């Protein structure tokens, strides 16, 4: 697998360079200097590698700064983000990875290989849903139905509304589940080590598809009165039972496959720190995840290293803590869709439906502590963390457990928890609730829905 990932990373980069023009992708295997045949195996692996990148880079850095789990400093470009200054030029790389590599690969999988490779297509559809949700949750209305139809003459694709995108997410996952449940004999070849997430295990992919269906259902808690029941139904159908079912971003730890949180600190030291609010939550509650989630700072001797985060209005201090070894070692996997999240979704859904949420909440916290530390929490800690199974507690515990994912930012926008105090040294004194439309979309797509104000809510954020 480690040897295979090198060629896939290079191929993923190649696809990204070509993705600006769909007609070039159609002749991707015709370069005489680098003859690479587009195959379902290559496309799936490229989708996974680019998803790992998206899940551990700009979008998540921004979301983490907004929720004060992370903190940007004035050493580099994260300082303005911490002051809530996000421009249309700041988000082009993230947009291009989503649309120029990941989603276009999923489009080709479905367009060219669906009939004879339903397993590859089904896995690609799950990844498509995940990445399309990243796009819409951060940018609002985004292109999808017309996004990859340049060969039909559509050079300026229309944007789908976010409401339409959420309908597409559910239908994409429904189709994925159908494909992944087909008999093996319906496939010309089967995914194996080219699937870095589950090694070709379709049953685990099906579980993840259902958890995503639940995630997306509950995301609409402010606009759909049936959201909680839909989420609970999907979690019940998922059959997810333990951390062994987690979908993780995989990094081999080699020079061309480093964990991106580790690589970021190596290449841009002190650009990014952890947030005081998040670190203090772990310290004040004697949370066993503290030394795994947060690294001790490196003060000048004889000052003793400790755990300390930057306040929201502090972009100057760099003698503070970075992300800890469970998330930011060279080969640390990072959860994308997890059993812990599934149980938090169940807990919230049950609470909203007037049911007993505590067993699911306790299972969620237990799963998180076990995943991060390698040991189950003590009964005393678990009891203290789950004393009151109300919405505030569920979201607060989820905020801690889903560190370095986009979900705490999504939850904050739709629930108001945790109760964060915005950076009072910023111009807006208001935490952003979206990213602006990328500059190239504004300039070159006449059909783009252009939004520049980062305090303008997306559709589901009422």
Question: How does this model look, in words?
Answer:
- This protein has 462 residues and is mainly alpha-helical.
- It contains 20 helices and six strands.
- Strands 1-5 form a two-stranded antiparallel ribbon. The protein has a two-stranded antiparallel ribbon with strand order 2-3.
- The chain is globular, with a radius of gyration of 21 Å.
- The protein starts with a helix and ends in an 18-residue tail after the last helix.
- Residues 1-35 have low confidence and may be disordered.
Global morphology: globular
Strand content: under 5%
Distance between the termini: 45 Å
- Give me the secondary-structure category: mainly alpha
Tally of DSSP β-strands: 6
| Radius of gyration, whole Å | 21 Å
Helix content: 40-55%
Q: Major beta sheet, specifics?
A: 2 strands, antiparallel
H/E series: HHHHEHHHEEHHHEHEHHHEHHHHHH
Low-confidence segments = 1-35
Strand order of the largest sheet: 1-5
Helical element count? 20
- Overall mean pLDDT stands at 93
Summarize the structure.
This protein has 462 residues and is mainly alpha-helical. It has 20 helices and six strands.
Task: For this entry, give a set of tags.
462 residues, disordered N terminus, two-stranded antiparallel sheet, 50% helix, 6 strands, mainly alpha
Secondary structure: elements and pairs:
Elements: H1 2-18, H2 22-26, H3 40-55, H4 58-66, E1 70-72, H5 78-82, H6 92-113, H7 118-139, E2 142-143, E3 159-160, H8 162-180, H9 202-219, H10 227-238, E4 247-249, H11 260-267, E5 272-274, H12 276-284, H13 290-293, H14 325-328, E6 334-337, H15 339-352, H16 358-373, H17 379-385, H18 391-401, H19 407-415, H20 439-444
Helix pairs in contact: 1-3, 1-6, 3-6, 3-7, 6-7, 7-8, 7-9, 8-9, 9-10, 9-15, 10-15, 15-16, 15-18, 16-18, 18-19
